[in-house]
Design a protein that fits this description.
This protein has four helices and 36 strands. By secondary structure, the protein is mainly β. It has two domains: 150 residues, Immunoglobulin-like (Sandwich); 288 residues, 5 Propeller (Tachylectin-2, Chain A), CATH 2.115.10. Strands 3, 5, 6, 7, 9, 11 and 12 form a seven-stranded mixed β-sheet that branches.
């Protein structure tokens, strides 16, 4: 709807009212609250803009509401984003709402991926939002204002995204360092190179030849997934080995530029990555996808299909080197909270999953499998150590004929997500906790085969 010749809102905006907090007002004050996905957006970042009509009561009907984008003194009004350019402007857009008691959410800018905007950094842009009285002569309550900008620089680095004051743990400051119980491997150390930060590095996936490494990263493990998906950095990162050194990790983009997605790596066979993803066109809540490495980029991502994602409801997984045996964790239907299962591929079809049974599965929680290339060693995470150590532990079972051996606890103290290269080097996640049991961060560790 449009109001012709009305300039009061513009006049007030130009007066430069004070920016107010974009969190919910504790005093329940009447007004408009604005929320952006980020106040500095980069190419590839998710971007959205919501308004919240805050009304302590009573309910109001037929309330004119306007939202505006201001770019250096020029204004565009929602919902059609009509350009308002006085004195020649005939009017501007607004919309009429019924506003009940509480907060009414208005999706002003739907989520999209910010495009490549060149090398220039632009700051000092503003979004405004206001509720007006029936005569459109004054603003009801607080005017919502938020300042933002965009940069043509590359996506934020992992270090730039980590919250101020985050603690980077080291083996010297670790309250509960990982403990190895087998003489076949060296003592665990943080993975060499530029892998670990003060954020969360998790879900280590190492290629069989030991030259390609993928992992999950998020700046703050205490942030819920629905917020991680919007931060522009959470997801799959990867690096390669150059001689004896690992290159600096870069983001692996595993979706089209439009749409939000949150991905985590599970398994790699030659140049094919299997990963889990939360995205809008999933068959279920979290689906399994594949992507192919070609020319130094991950591409041709595809949903693994209804059989994997709906019929079997596969969780974290790993495949044998030939890609025909898929081991996965699944909650329910087995011996404990989570069990390990196996399905095999015949042409394009997967067999009905088979529970691995005892001694692999128990009344406890077995998950996050890794299977060696030849299928002879199965590694996995149990949520409780059998040796009395803290937190999850890593176990190994060896297959002789068709029989799996009694699982052996190999690494203890807040460890999980094992992966090995064909030389037997063991990569895993180590969680850092303080002496009060509070989670601090997580790193990738390695124990080299002796």
């Amino acid at each position: 709807m449009k109001r012709m010749g009305w300039i009061l809102c513009i006049t007030i905006i130009l007066a430069g009212l004070t920016l107010w907090d974009s969190t919910c007002r504790a005093d329940g004050e009447l007004g408009v609250r604005l929320e952006l996905s980020t106040t500095m957006v980069h190419p590839g970042d998710p971007f959205w803009f919501n308004g919240y009509l805050c009304n302590p009561g009573p309910s109001k009907t037929d309330v004119p509401v306007c939202f505006a984008l201001e770019v250096f003194g020029e204004y565009w009004f929602w919902p059609s984003w009509t350009h308002y350019a006085p004195p020649d402007a005939l009017g501007f857009d607004y919309h009429v709402f019924d506003v009940p008691v509480g907060e009414t959410e208005v999706l002003v800018v739907s989520p999209f991926t910010w495009p490549d905007t060149g090398d220039t950094e632009v700051t000092g842009l503003h979004f405004y939002g206001a509720m007006l009285d029936a005569g459109m002569n004054s603003i009801l309550g607080e005017l919502g204002i938020v300042e933002w900008g965009y940069s043509g620089s590359a996506n934020k680095t992992r270090e730039e995204s980590i919250p101020e004051g985050a603690v980077k743990m080291t083996p010297e400051t670790d309250f509960w360092p990982p403990v190895i119980h087998s003489s076949e491997w060296s003592n665990p150390i943080p993975m060499p190179g530029l892998i670990n930060t003060a954020g969360v590095e998790d879900s280590a996936v190492i290629a069989a030849d030991g030259n390609t490494f993928l992992f999950f990263f998020t700046p703050d493990g205490n942030v819920p997934a629905e917020n991680q998906i919007l931060d522009g950095v959470t997801g799959v990162w990867w690096c390669t080995k150059n001689g004896t050194e690992w290159t600096e990790p870069v983001r692996a983009y595993l979706a089209d530029t439009n749409g939000l997605h949150l991905d985590s790596p599970f398994s790699i066979q030659e140049n094919t990555l299997w990963f889990g993803s939360i995205r809008t066109d999933n068959l279920g809540d979290i689906d399994i996808y594949t992507a192919v490495l070609s020319g130094g980029e991950w591409m041709n991502w595809q949903n693994a299909g209804e059989q994997i994602n709906l019929e079997f409801d596969v969780g974290e997984l790993y495949l044998t080197g030939d890609g025909n045996s898929l081991f996965f964790g699944k909650v329910g239907g087995g011996f404990g909270q989570s069990d390990l299962w196996l399905t095999t591929r015949n042409n394009q079809e997967w067999s009905a999953p088979v529970n691995l049974g005892t001694p692999v599965n128990s009344s406890g929680d077995e998950s996050r499998p890794f299977i060696s290339s030849d299928g002879s060693e199965l590694w996995f995470t149990k949520m409780v150590s059998g040796k009395g150590y803290r937190g999850p532990a890593i176990f190994r079972t060896i297959k002789t004929g068709e029989i799996w051996s009694e699982p052996e606890e190999i690494v203890s103290n807040y460890v999980g997500d094992p992966g090995l290269d064909d030389n037997g080097n063991l990569y895993f996640t180590h969680l850092f906790y303080d002496d009060a049991g509070n989670k601090i961060e997580a790193d990738i560790y390695v124990s080299f085969r002796r």
